[in-house]
Design goal:
Chain B: This is DUF362 domain-containing protein. The complex is a heterodimer of chains A (about 375) and B (about 325). Chain A is of the alpha/beta class and about 375 residues long. Chain A contains twelve helices and twelve strands. In chain B, strand 6 and strand 7 form a beta hairpin. The chains are: A alpha/beta (about 375), B alpha/beta (about 325). At the A-B interface, helix 2, helix 3 and helix 10 of A face helix 5 and helix 12 of B.
Chain lengths: ~375, ~325
């Protein structure tokens, strides 16, 4: 973080924040920031007028139709980058030029090389880079981590993680045209592996330390330009754990249930994230809502997005980033973590490449 | 099996699709799936083959409303369309187009995701997506003493049409069927039932082939059967299989004469073992999954709670009018 920004932060009670991109996840970040203590959302940028209108209804006073103008026009401490991946690098570089810290939606970039470029710009400008890898903020995943650190099942020779949803293509009755960019490798950097697998890589390294990709398979259930399924075999040398990862954008998702399964098979038993999910999402939501309403009387801070269970993780991830930059600390999930997930994804893509006949050398027979 | 609506007679044929190698109810390989339709297609097409042989230009109209995986039963299996095109090419020299329309999504994009270009490149057939640029002819039909317009793709008026719906319900609960598959080729309408009847009357398909290889009735079901017959009677059979009363299906009530009777004839090598009633038992009452949109009362209650609890309203709970 540069000296000028530190000076600005210490002079002000609130962080001045801009939100770049107000689609679905951008709106979650926006609404988190709007109710977050010590945060002042100055402006939102989105190319779509309906998203700008929604941001205004949420309480934002100024909106822009492009993020570059917002970054030039507003005096900000931090920006949330919730744009499609093909715009992340440009947005981060422009924020860096303006000395603005950035919290970037995953994937950080479309490739580790692009991430390198972004992180170099960030280092040169002295800005902090955080990445929205939310799985490690989910209560069920936190529960697994705590049980594992507690040694509850002893040595864990094998672990598995699965994350499935319906991706860019919806479930019936889907009537809206799916966006183009998530199905465009140039725009998104890849398919399911970058959309969902990247979260899994982050959680697995958080649990087990550095990972090595042993093998991988990717595929498409439809004739899509990007993969909608990937399976990766990993090895964690530090813990001597073998891990399988499967992610896919091919399965109809029925909210409030979310198909993320994390299992650690230990010597004395299993730790599964399902143990830490609410038995009944609706009862859990009601309990959280009642607590928030009661908190108005008792003066307790609300559990923002608490009734939704999963969205709370986005709030916590953003709050942790803002706390870090306030205290001039390294963000808990920073650009290096984001880049590392991209390196693992690239290793998986490399492993999954078919070995065609062209790769084989012709056998020579000498008589 | 027969669907009794009294009156005139409708005749629908059904044949079992060879399910021998369909482990898990689905064969991922499209060529292998196409091969499974050989005998069943021959059996159900037999009465209509003269029309097909004599046609100069044929349009095959499958359900391609959205790129759902064909193993869900929510769209026509492109392999059935490929097998049909192959069959037609062997029996005549008609020029064949596969024609379809998307719901909110470009049909050519849907067709590409469903693999139609790869299937059709085996033959001398192409996919033509219907869109705003498609030349149309506005035709008016009298349906239930009302004048109902339909902007039919002009090219279809000059072709022998085979419509190939899949066996599934619509969002409204009605059966999707051939009439609605044809209606989807036109403009949006405030009167979908009458428009479906008008569309079928104007396009006047030579045949409707109902893809029940995988059907959707609350969940997918590998029914491994295909039905064929005139459009409205075949839709009536589809409605019956989904447990809908024909009298409660407005489009069918408009299309079929009072008292119409529809017979279903089992044909093909597996005719004796084909259990149509079991298909109906499995699918009856099946609907699409919940749309995921919150009820307006729930979204209103959440907003009220959020104001009282100082919470934020997530985009999923803003209500349709407020979301992007």
């Amino acid at each position: 973080m540069n000296t000028a920004l530190l000076s600005r932060l210490t002079e002000s009670d609130s962080l001045a924040v801009g939100v770049l991109g107000a689609g679905n996840i951008g709106t979650v970040h926006l609404k988190s920031a709007l109710v977050m203590p010590g945060v002042d959302v100055r402006a939102v940028a989105d190319a779509r007028s309906e998203n700008r209108a929604r941001a205004k209804r949420a309480g934002v006073s100024r909106t822009y139709d492009d993020y570059a103008t917002l970054l030039e026009s507003e005096d900000l401490d931090a920006a949330v980058v919730a744009l499609p991946p093909f715009l992340h690098a440009d947005a981060v570089e422009q924020a860096a030029a303006a000395g603005i810290d950035v919290f970037v939606e995953k994937p950080l970039a479309r490739s580790s090389a692009e991430a390198d470029r972004m992180l170099e710009a960030a280092t040169d400008a002295g800005i902090a880079v955080g990445v929205d890898h939310t799985l490690r903020y989910q209560p069920d995943v936190v529960g697994v981590k705590e049980a594992y650190e507690d040694g509850r099942v002893g040595h864990v020779p094998y672990a598995s993680i699965t994350r499935l949803n319906d991706g860019a293509l919806g479930r019936p009755p889907a009537t809206d045209s799916p966006p183009e960019w998530p199905l465009d490798a140039d725009a998104a950097g890849g398919g399911s592996l970058l959309e969902l697998g990247i979260h899994c890589f982050d959680v697995l390294e958080w649990l087990f330390g550095d990972l090595e990709v042993e093998s991988a398979a990717i595929g498409e259930t439809l004739e899509l330009p990007v993969e909608d399924a990937a399976t990766v075999l990993l090895r964690a040398p530090e813990t001597e754990t073998t891990i399988t990862l499967h992610c896919g954008s091919y399965q109809w998702e029925q909210l409030p249930e979310v198909n993320t399964r994390l299992r650690l098979e230990g010597v004395t038993g299993t730790i599964a994230n399902e143990e830490y999910l609410p038995e009944n999402f609706y009862a859990s939501a009601a309990k959280s809502a009642i607590g928030n309403v009661a908190g108005r009387v008792t003066g307790d801070d609300p559990d923002v997005f608490g009734p939704t269970f999963y969205l709370r993780a986005h709030y916590d991830a953003l709050a942790a980033f803002f706390d870090a930059i306030r205290n001039d600390e390294r963000p808990p999930v920073d650009g290096r973590d984001g880049k590392r997930t991209l390196e693992l994804a690239e290793a998986a893509y490399e492993c999954a490449k078919p070995t065609g006949s062209n790769d084989l050398e012709a056998t020579e027979v000498t008589l | 099996m027969s669907a009794d609506h009294g009156g005139s007679h409708g005749h629908v044929r059904v044949a079992a699709v060879d399910a021998g190698d369909r482990t898990g109810g689905w064969l991922p390989d499209v060529d292998a799936r196409m091969a499974t339709f050989e005998s069943s297609l021959s059996a159900i097409l037999e009465p209509s083959i003269t029309v097909i042989e004599n046609a100069d230009r044929i349009a095959v109209v499958p359900d391609v409303h959205y790129p759902f995986h064909p193993s869900t039963g929510m769209v026509t299996d492109p392999a059935l369309v490929g097998a049909l095109v192959s069959h037609i090419e062997r029996r005549g020299d008609a020029e064949i187009d596969v024609v379809g329309a998307g719901t909110g999504i470009d049909a050519d994009r849907t067709a590409a995701y469903l693999g139609y270009p790869a299937v059709l490149e085996r033959f001398e057939a192409t996919f033509s997506g219907i869109d705003d640029e498609t030349s149309r002819t506005r035709v008016v039909r009298s349906v239930d003493d009302r004048s109902v317009p339909f902007a039919v793709p002009t090219d279809l008026l000059e072709r022998t049409v085979v419509v190939v719906p899949t066996l599934r319900p619509t969002e409204s609960g009605a059966v999707a069927g051939g009439m609605r598959t044809l209606a989807a080729l036109g403009d949006e309408t405030d009167d979908p039932d009458a428009t479906a009847v008008a569309a079928a009357d104007i396009v006047d398909p030579a045949l409707s082939i109902l893809d029940a290889t995988t059907a959707y009735g609350g969940t997918p079901h590998a029914a491994n059967a295909i039905f064929a017959g005139p459009t409205a009677p075949t839709d009536a059979v589809a409605a019956s299989l989904l447990g809908r009363s024909i009298d409660e299906e407005p489009a069918l009530s408009l299309a079929l004469e009072d008292g119409a009777r529809i017979d279903v004839e089992r044909v093909g090598p597996e005719a004796r073992t084909l259990d149509v009633e079991a298909i109906g038992d499995r699918l009856s009452g099946g609907e699409l999954p919940p749309d995921g949109d919150m009820h307006p009362v729930v979204t209103a209650a959440y907003r009220l709670y959020a104001a009282a609890g100082r919470d934020a309203v997530p985009p999923q709970l803003e209500g349709k009018g407020d979301a992007d």
